[in-house]
Every structure is written in structure tokens, then in C-alpha cells.
Amino acid sequence: xxxSLALLTTTLxxxxxxSLVASAPSQAVADSLSRLPTPISRVPIEQIAVDTALxxxxxxxxxxxxxLPAYIYPSSWTSPPAWQPIYDAAAAYPGVxxxxxxxxxxxxxxxxxxxxxxxxxTTLKRFSNVVLLGYVHTSWGTRSSDxxxxxxxxxxxxxxxxxxxxxxxxDEAPSQATSTLYNYMANITCYAKExxxxxxxxxxxIYFNPGTVADVRYYxxxxxxxxxxxxxxxxxxNEPTFAPGTELTMSNSNFMIHSMNGGWTQxxxxxxxxxxxxxxxxxxxxxxxxxxxxxxxxxFGADWTEFVAGVDALRH
Length: 316
Prior knowledge:
eight-stranded parallel β-barrel; alpha/beta; Spherulin 4-like cell surface protein; Spherulin4; 15% strand; signal
């Protein structure tokens, strides 16, 4: 038996609609999850993940996106503004989707983003090819659910001020799928989806970032999973290994590689990105020559323009 993406989507939407309860989010999500096994109990969850990836991969609109960890304060008083390279790239390459991680303070920080973030978010929202993701860390699945819910609720609260997020980037996500960890990630993912859907922004985009290959079952929860986050040298010596069959989830996988050798051309970028998935198409990617060990995402690398052009070239 093969479960179609349409059936899975219908099931999830039904669950979300029945669990839109403003109070006691943990109980509401738990009640929703308790209903999940009924329609899919005869199908191995690993097969659901692979089937879902295959259907997404076959979509004509499925293209490699850019995941941008915008861990740079968006100063507008500088010339040019600190985030000008993002604005320029989004304008120059309207066919490329940019998933931009918003991370004011290892999370949302206050109930409202400060004035600089307000300016930057407002500018980014003008681009239809930009998707804004709120940064939330899970401490490898040990952070309290209530703390995670609070971060999500804060990001959702920004919507009324015009700064709403369109998804969540779960950093420090677990790679192992024990019963406890899987249920934890399912709870916080369902909560994020129901909260974002309720704002009317649209279907949310969810990332998990374990920084390594994760249990394939997590692909039933996340839209993208970051299967590698490290230096270019580390990638060459420790290329991610997928279990037989599960490499089909590549179109929903992400690579974040920093400390790359300088001087890459657009053609070389395209070739390398294609090689990440053996030519089958990776879900999203971020490459940079920056090598600051404390924050390799703290500036735009000298190869930013070639990188973006390299991703765009894969569309043609």
C-alpha cells in the first residue's frame, strides 16, 4: 500500500483543524497526535517519508532553494545596509526561493523586533520569493516544550505588527528518533503549524537542523532537514551517508557548508551543488567561504554572488 501525499496532507489538515485550541497547547497537540496512527497504521512510517519525498521530487516546481542563516545584525545606518546583499539577490533572481532565518537573539527576543529588524523584515516581505523562518533551538530535544511554544508564540505575535514569520527553523534538532524525541518534535511541529496557519499567512515551512543525517521518520514532520552543517574540508572527508532507499529524501534535505576555498566561479558552484545529490536535486543549500569559527554566517562571503548565480543556473 502506498500512501499518497494528498491523503497525508488531508489527514494532517484535519488534525490541525480539530486542534486549534488557544489554551493548553500541549494537550491539544497530544490529542491530535493520538488520532494520527489510525489512517496510516498499515504503512511503515519510513515508507511514508520516502513516498512523500518522491512525490515532492516529481513536482515540476521543486527547485533547489537557498537557506540563508541571516545571523548578521541588519544595520540600516551603514552604506550599504547590512542586508543589502539579500535584497539585491532576491531582486536579481526572482526564480530562486530564499529561506531566510530571522534570529534576533538566539530566538525572537522581545514581543516586537527592534526597529532595525522591523525595517529589514518589511523590506524582505516585498519579495514574493523570500520565505521568513523564525529561529528556535531545541537543545537536541531537551529544551522544555513550553519554552519552545513561547518562542513560536512570540514569532506568531509579530504578525499583528506586520512582521509575521512564514515558518520555523528548529536548530539543534535531534537526529535519533526515539519515541520520546519523535513525539517531542511532532508536538512542537504541529503546534507551530497550527499557530502559523491560524494567522492566515499560508502553509508554514518547517526546517529541522540536526546538522547530520537524521532518522528518515523525521521527514514526515519537516519540510527540510539539514543533513550537514560543517566546513568544506569536513564535507570532503565525511560526506553524509544515507541508508539504502532513504537517499530519495534528498529533495527535502539541506546542506550548510562554510569555510570553502575562495575563488569559486558560478559554474563551479553549480557543479558542486549538483554533486551533493548526485544530480538528483537537493532541497536547499547554503555555501560560503566565511570561516569564522564563532559565527561563519556573520558576514556575506566574497563568493555570495557566485553562489546565488550558481543556484539559479540549476533551474535552466
